[in-house]
Amino acid sequence: MNEFKICDICNEQYVNELKESLSKIDQDAKIEIKCHGLCGIGARHVFVVVNGMPVIGETVAAVINQVETIIKKD
Question: What is the pTM for the complete model shown?
Fold first, then answer.
């Protein structure tokens, strides 16, 4: 089972879009929304932690593209 972690503080403006997009990638994934202590990254970039690995991008679309690539490899 995949696990996605989203920060609701750093990524506040993107939370709903990220959650919806991640749910489409894997409907059975666990999605945890809370602070994950990656404030340095979140202050400048959109990010999601995928199965323990941070995925960072300039836009939500860039992050989702990377997540899809990672999930396909697993």
Answer: 0.92
